[in-house]
Every structure is written in C-alpha cells, then in structure tokens.
C-alpha cells in the first residue's frame, strides 16, 4: 500500500487548491477584519490544525521542511509535548468529523467558480471588474438547492452581482451534444456515424437527463450501447451579449454587458488593489492604519467620493484625500490598463 507519489500529490493538491487557494482566500476577512472574535479564533484554529496535520502527513516526504513547520507552530502554542514532528503519532482519519454534504457543496462551489473564472480569462475580463449576472440551469431539484446554498460564495469569488438558477426544463440556454470521436470511434466502429446522428438530435429534456444520470443508453440494431458523459462534449448555443461553458453536469452563462456603475466599481477595486500592493511593498502590517493621498484624476474623483467609506474600510485608511499637487514620493499606478494616477501611503502610528 506504500505509494509515495500518490500520497505526495494528494497532500500537495489539498495544500494548494483546498487550503491555500480556497479556504485561506475565502477566510481573508475573518483573519484581518474586526475584533478578535470567536469567528476569527475559529478561522485561525482551523488553519493551524490543517498546517500541523500537513506537517505530520508530509514528514516522511519532506522531513526537514516539515520539521521546521511543526517547530514553528508548536513552539508558539506548546499544544504538543514532542520536540520533533518525527516523534509524533501519525494522523488518523476521524470518520465522525467527515461532512459529506458540506464537501459536496464546496466541491460544487469550486467547480462553478473555476468555470466562471475561465470564461473571464477567455474574454480578458479581469476579476476586479464586476459583472452583472450569471445563469446556471439546474438539471434537477437537488442541483438547484445545492447551487442556491453556495450562491453567495460563487458571487463573491467571481465578483458578479446576481446568480440566477434556471429551473428544470427552462429553454433559455439551448444545449447540443457533440460526440468525442477519439473516445467513441475505437469502441463503436461502424456504429459511430449512426450514434453521432442520434446524439446530435437529442432533445433538451434528453440532454438534461443525460447530464443528470451521467449515462445514456442507446438501442442500436437491438443492441444496448452505453454512452458516458465524458465521451461527449455538451455545447451551448450563443446568446447575444453572453458567453457560456459546460462541464457536466453544470453549465454557466455569463452576461458580458458593462454599465457605467460596473465600470466605475472596477476602477475602485483596481485602486484598492494598488494601495494594498503599496502597503505590502512598504512593509506595513495587515492591521496598520494609514493615511491615503491620491493624485487628482477626472475619472477617479467622482468614483472616490461615491465610494469613500468602502475604500477606507478595505485599505484601513483613517484619512483619504485628493491632491492636485504631485509629490516626489508618490507611486505611479495603473488603473484597469486604461489610465494612471499617483498614490501615497503613510502609516499612522497608533
């Protein structure tokens, strides 16, 4: 049962995708916003538990690095009596703590989020640019309830204002099935042409059931021929002003229209990102309060006035002012690849 490569990849995937790129990103506000509440304590304790368990799991693979991580954690907390990670008990799974429903929700949120972000990248729409709406057709009632339960996570992670779950049977998004000839051809041989015609003529209801069951049984010359969902490509007809993608059983359709308010909000989010970068490059702690000075720009002025409190809250700025005088120690920043301005960040001593 010893398989170092498989174990290493599973640990690496959990650390990078589930912990770093998902849990930590979702919990950023819990880590640095507000008082030292029970919610913040829970967020830190969950992260601590993950890191110290990873150190133990990966210690046979990366002994020195995991030793350093373990000591860095345990030296502070003294929660364990061991001097080395290699003296600890190897972790054992606790089946009673596994929540299959929660895991399904998070895996679905990750998949749909990934699909939407891929569409953004394809259309060169940066994530900081808010979008109006995404539509997701439900293949059954369970899928509908599942997506509704994670709606806020998807909207936050993809920076979209509205998510509409289309009910079963809705024909707003028209789907078609295209066979994967490389997968089906060698298996089906001479039957391939006939089966391709059948797949391409499936009704919307038949496609919905195909997605739901992940399997389609066809009767060809009195013989049952199974077609699996990963042996076909499900494509959607274009809707003017929208772009869509399908990864069974989910389809997402993204509204590409941009209103003036959405564009302005995109500028503000870019501005906040530039301020955060300057904070980091200046060596400021995440909890340090600042005074923020922004060089006057006609596009930004009204946007800043309208979003004054939001900017201050996100950057921990206790003071924010606009100036027409360019100062030598200001940093030039690009906003949305459309125009430039200058920013100065001053740490406020507490």
Set down the secondary structure blueprint.
Elements: H1 4-26, H2 28-32, H3 38-57, H4 63-77, H5 100-122, E1 131-137, H6 141-149, H7 151-158, E2 160-166, E3 175-179, H8 181-188, H9 192-200, H10 204-213, E4 215-220, E5 223-228, E6 232-236, E7 242-247, E8 250-255, H11 260-281, E9 290-295, H12 298-306, H13 308-315, E10 317-323, E11 331-335, E12 339-347
Parallel strand pairs: 1-2, 9-10
Antiparallel strand pairs: 1-8, 3-6, 4-5, 7-8, 9-12, 11-12
What does this structure look like?
The protein is built from 13 helices and twelve strands. With 350 residues, it is an alpha+beta fold. The protein has four domains: 4-97, Orthogonal Bundle (Isoleucyl-tRNA Synthetase, Domain 1), CATH 1.10.730.10; 100-171 and 238-258; 176-236, Signal recognition particle alu RNA binding heterodimer, srp9/1 (2-Layer Sandwich); 261-347, 2-Layer Sandwich (hypothetical protein PF0899 fold). The strands form four sheets. It has a four-stranded mixed β-sheet, with helices on one face. Helix 1 (4-26) packs antiparallel against helix 3 (38-57). The longest helix is centred in the N-terminal third of the chain and has 23 residues, at 4-26. The mean pLDDT is 92.
